[in-house]
Design brief:
By secondary structure, this protein is an alpha+beta fold. The chain is 33% helix and 22% strand. Strands 2-1-5-6-7-8 form a 6-stranded antiparallel beta sheet. Helix 1 packs across helix 2. The longest helix is centred in the N-terminal third of the chain and has 45 residues. It starts with 7 loop residues before the first helix and ends with a helix. The relative contact order is 0.12. The structure holds flavin mononucleotide. Flavin mononucleotide binds next to helix 5. The site of flavin mononucleotide has 13 residues, from helix 5.
Length: 257
């Protein structure tokens, strides 16, 4: 029996078919975009790590450079133990830091960076030169500025003290006031500054009014925006302290990683 187009059944079949077609198209597009988003996220990660390690990217294929010179590790912050396998690049640090099963709640006294919870694991990157010699270790840092979480990577030289470079890749500080974080003139000050003093205490400072000439631990704050700078200083104090990279650095120094 032929189905009449304008019958009740005909209308229902047309509507259901159209709905199914649209939902397939939406799901398909979402899947394709998800894949693209992941690729973009991974590209940004690779670029930021290379910039933090002060690698010159001009005219270079950053993906090839990353694959050749960078080895990612997943580090347990409590034990300092590190592992490196194909899954490390898929680690989601933000999810890890908010999931109660993969993070710890920080006491107010411990929480210098004002992050409330800290993931049990972080992803770090060893960077090598063409001869296979370690040139720097790139570490993730984040903490509260004045208005927002400020996310960055800092690279330290193999002495695990001298700063190679820093990059702040995400924040919500005020444009024109707190966004000096992305000004190369300001970040250039970080080169060759030291995190720890001779007693091993975290001594890096962002100084209101300007760092003293020759102070190896200090850089200038930006006048009228010292709160953001203070937040960055607190992040460094937290991440290079007991709840941060301390156990990992011990293992690295003992050549156990
Ligand atoms: C609308 C507005 C936005 C501001 N944004 C920032 C900011 O993003 N970062 C910051 O450190 N200070 C910001 N400030 C300034 C701070 O409130 C504060 O005055 C400043 O950080 C103190 O720096 P100073 O001690 O050098 O004066 C802002 C102020 C106003 C009124």
């Amino acid at each position: 029996m032929a189905l009449k187009k304008d019958s009740f059944m005909g209308t229902m079949i047309f509507t259901v078919t159209l709905c199914l077609l649209c939902s397939f198209m939406i799901t398909g597009t979402a899947e394709v975009l998800k894949e693209r988003k992941l690729v973009k996220k991974r590209d940004e990660l690779m670029r930021n790590v290379l910039i933090a390690a002060d690698v010159d990217l001009s005219g270079q294929d950053f993906r090839a450079l990353f694959a050749k010179d960078v080895k990612p590790f997943l580090v347990s912050l409590d034990s300092g133990e590190a592992q490196s396998d194909a899954t490390v690049m898929d680690f989601d640090p933000r999810m890890a830091s908010i999931n109660p099963e993969t993070s710890i709640k920080l006491e107010k006294k411990q929480d210098k960076a004002k992050i409330k919870t800290r993931a049990n694991q972080v992803r770090v990157f060893k960077v090598f030169d063409d001869s296979g010699k370690l040139t720097s270790v790139v570490l993730p840092i984040y903490g509260k500025g004045l208005w927002s979480m400020v996310y960055g990577f800092i690279a330290v030289k193999p002495d695990l003290n001298t700063i190679e470079n820093v990059v702040f890749y995400e924040h919500g500080e005020t444009p024109g006031i707190g966004d000096f974080l992305n000004d190369p003139e300001w970040t250039n000050q970080w080169h060759n500054k030291q995190i720890f003093d001779e007693k091993g205490k975290v001594s890096f400072k962002v100084v209101k009014g300007g760092a003293k000439e020759g102070d190896v631990h200090a850089i200038d704050a930006v006048s009228g925006a010292t709160m953001t700078g203070r937040g960055v200083q607190r992040s460094i104090q937290f991440w290079f302290g007991t709840e941060g990279f301390e156990a990992f650095f011990k293992k690295l120094k003992a050549s156990e990683v």
